[in-house]
Structure formats: C-alpha cells, structure tokens
Design a protein that fits this description.
single chain; mainly alpha; 9 helices
C-alpha cells in the first residue's frame, strides 16, 4: 500500500510541476513531434520562395517568359512591350491585367538566378496542369521572347532550350490559352 501512495504522490508532483511551468510560460507541448512537423511545414511554406508554389500554367509561363527576357541582363523596353503584346494576344488579357501579370512575374523573379538554376523544381507543382497544347505553346512563347530583341543571347538560348526539355514531354502542336 505504501508503494501505491508513493507512486500517486510522484504522479501528482509531476503534474503540479508541469502546471507551474505552464503558468510561467514554459510549454512542453513543443516536444510533440506531430506539432513540430506541422509547424515546420507551415514555416517552410510561409518563408519559402513563392515561385515554387505556382500551380497555374499561365502564371508559370509568364514567369518563364520574364526569366527569358532577364536571362542576359535587365529587360529592355522592347522586350517588355513584346511580352505585354504576347500577354494580350495569347493569354487574351486586357492592358491592365497584362501589365499586372508582368509586374508580378518580374517581382517573383527577382534576379532570375533561382528560376534558371532550379527550373524543374519551379515547374514541379504545375507540371500536371499543363495540357500538351499549353506546354508546346509555352515553349514557343519562351523562344519568341528570346528573339524579341534580335538574335537571342547565349544565356537566353540555353534557358529556352532547358524550358523546351522540361516541358517537351507534354509536346504537341502549339495551342490556345484559356
């Protein structure tokens, strides 16, 4: 009987100490591995680069077009005007939406190094959403942007080739965007 009383006393003491620690602001709930995993996944998504979460083919293609234009330095005004014209004709956007899409694409792009170095990772969330027509059209649009200001530079040609290889598995004749 004295063993049971000692065991109950120990359990009550541990519970009382945990209660006092919680009152002082020390939470032992952080030791929960499932809560830790959930917090880590949320932090990774919140603090991560948003280019790795794009799922719509039109947004990804706009990002790839901006990356192509900035592959050999800053985007020229001819390239910017050409991209806006492509957004209006191919994506069927009005002037304000086309300008907003270009602004958001260049903002997400930053310097453009990350898109060029991790192209497969950028395309991974949207790869299944691309139809064969959209994939072929995206490749054609990236190549068209590369040649907007004359002969494409070596960096632009290499990036356009990498995009063609990544999206080439969905190849078909160039199609329309919805």
């Amino acid at each position: 009987m004295h063993v049971v009383i000692g065991l109950l006393g120990s359990i009550i003491t541990v519970l009382w100490l945990l209660h006092r620690l919680a009152e002082m602001g020390i939470d032992l709930g952080g030791l929960n591995p499932w809560a830790w995993r959930r917090r880590r996944a949320w932090r990774k998504r919140y603090e991560g680069n948003p280019i790795y979460t794009l799922e719509k083919p039109m947004e990804v293609t706009a990002l790839l077009m901006a990356a192509t234009a900035k592959a050999s330095g800053e985007m020229s005004s001819d390239e910017r005007d050409g991209i806006l014209a492509i957004f209006r004709t191919e994506f069927h956007l009005n002037e304000a939406d086309a300008s907003g899409l270009l602004r958001s694409s260049t903002y997400l792009l930053g310097q453009g190094d990350e898109v060029q170095e991790n192209l497969a990772k950028v395309l991974a969330p949207s790869q299944e959403a691309f139809t064969p027509d959209q994939a072929a059209s995206a490749v054609e649009l990236v190549q068209r942007v590369a040649s907007l200001s004359g002969e494409p530079s070596q960096a632009q040609a290499a990036f356009a080739h990498a995009v063609a290889q990544e999206l080439g598995r969905h190849a078909g004749p160039p199609g329309k965007w919805d």
